[in-house]
């Protein structure tokens, strides 16, 4: 990594100095005019609508789970600016290796809410994303997706393709060995990957201060010879600029980049979690004042480009999302073959025995009726 070869924002916002990239402040005022990304009014309005759609879908998913109609769900509340900024910079030919809290990015790539609902309903088809290319299934095991991303990145470089890989992990995931291993190999091989750490301040109940003594999480890139930057994750424009810059850099063949998106998980870790057990209501209320949707709305009103009827739009989105959920609920059960047939080209003997045992169980279960 040659410092002179870095994009300006990666030099100017050096993670060793703990500087954070921001374009607008908490009230929606532009504080770095020279850094404002090239986005016309229609694109900004579209970005807000995508963020609002994710917020609406997120709230409805929590409601379905509370009704007992869906299994455990991972809320995205408060992290929409990261997801949509990334999604607006991911091209059709680029790869996405998500963790489990990137709903908006998956939607931007073309995944449907029905497919995500199927996943949280325990249906195997919820991870296949049949109409979207180069998108890996949601990864629940912490950190495994980073190895997949690095392997894909190496394949891209080996085949001399013009593609990038976008992958995500949470602040707690940086303590996993997979994180260090993936960044190390990505740096050595100089593969086209954009790593995003969604620093939402808590790994379930464990705060960042209990994860690391590093001045920030972006600085972890330095040891691996990878450029890193800390970005205000609630500032849509800062996130968009970071992703656009990083995408251009990795596609130029100069190797990977790391972005720490500094944000806050406004909701629970999952619907099985109770945040009141480990953080104070005052803290949540303070962060709610810098909600990414609220900040973008403030900017749009100051610039006189706000033309959205939120209640009408919410009703439209709710009807569409509910229709997709009902369709997912009515989906036929997946075939037993779907569980076993896609791990190996030739199924090993232990898999054959497991499949046979499961088929016997299903037969016994059916005959009991």
Overview of the structural elements:
It is a single chain. This protein has 369 residues and is an alpha/beta fold. It is 43% helix and 9% strand. It contains 13 helices and eight strands. The chain has helices spanning 8-12, 41-66, 80-87, 103-109, 113-120, 144-158, 177-189, 236-251, 281-288, 292-302, 310-329, 337-340, 349-367; strands spanning 20-21, 95-97, 165-170, 193-199, 202-203, 206-207, 228-232, 257-262. Helix 7 (177-189) links the parallel strand 3 and strand 4 (193-199). Helix 3 runs parallel beside helix 4.
Mean pLDDT: 96
Contiguous uncertain segments of 5+ residues: none
Shape: globular
Strand neighbour order, sheet with most strands? 1-7-8-4-3-2
Structural class: alpha/beta
Query: What fraction strand?
Result: 5-15%
Q: Tally the helices: what do you get?
A: 13
SSE sequence, one letter per element: HEHHEHHHEHEEEEHEHHHHH
**CA-atom Rg in angstroms:** 21 Å
Number of strands: 8
Please report the distance between the alpha carbons of the first and last residues.
Answer: 65 Å
Task: Give a quick account of the main beta sheet: strands, pairing sense, barrel closure.
Answer: 6 strands, parallel
Share of helix among residues? 40-55%
């Amino acid at each position: 990594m040659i410092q002179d070869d870095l994009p300006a924002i990666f030099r100017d916002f050096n993670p060793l100095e703990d500087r954070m990239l921001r374009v607008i402040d908490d009230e929606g005022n532009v504080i770095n005019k020279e850094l404002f990304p090239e986005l016309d009014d229609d694109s900004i309005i579209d970005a807000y609508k995508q963020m609002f759609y994710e917020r609406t879908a997120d709230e409805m998913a929590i409601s379905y789970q509370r009704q007992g109609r869906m299994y455990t769900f991972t809320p995205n509340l408060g992290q929409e600016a990261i997801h949509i900024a990334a999604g607006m910079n991911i091209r059709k030919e680029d790869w996405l290796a998500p963790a489990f809290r990137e709903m908006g990015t998956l939607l931007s790539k073309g995944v449907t809410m029905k497919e995500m609902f199927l996943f949280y309903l325990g249906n195997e088809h919820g991870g296949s994303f049949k109409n979207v290319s180069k998108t890996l299934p949601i990864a629940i095991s912490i950190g495994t997706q980073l190895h997949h991303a690095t392997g894909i990145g190496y394949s891209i470089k080996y085949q001399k393709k013009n593609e990038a890989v976008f992958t995500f992990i949470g602040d707690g995931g940086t303590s996993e060995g997979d994180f260090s291993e993936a960044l190390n190999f990505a740096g050595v091989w100089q593969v086209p990957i954009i790593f995003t750490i969604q620093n939402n301040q808590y790994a379930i109940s464990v705060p960042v201060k209990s994860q690391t003594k590093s001045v920030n999480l972006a600085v972890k890139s330095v040891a691996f010879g990878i450029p890193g930057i800390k970005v205000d994750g609630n500032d849509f424009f800062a996130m968009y600029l970071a992703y656009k810059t990083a995408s251009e850099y990795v596609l130029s063949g100069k190797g990977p980049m790391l972005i720490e998106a500094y944000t806050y998980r406004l909701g629970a870790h999952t619907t099985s979690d109770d945040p009141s057990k480990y953080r104070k209501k005052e803290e949540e209320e303070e962060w709610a004042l810098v909600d990414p949707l609220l900040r973008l709305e403030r900017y749009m009103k100051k610039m006189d480009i706000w033309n959205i009827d939120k209640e009408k739009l919410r009703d439209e989105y709710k009807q569409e999302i509910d229709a997709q959920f009902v369709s997912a609920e009515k989906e036929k059960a997946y075939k037993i073959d779907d569980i076993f047939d896609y791990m190996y080209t030739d199924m090993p003997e232990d898999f054959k025995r497991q499949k046979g045992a499961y088929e016997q169980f299903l037969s016994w279960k059916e005959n009991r009726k």
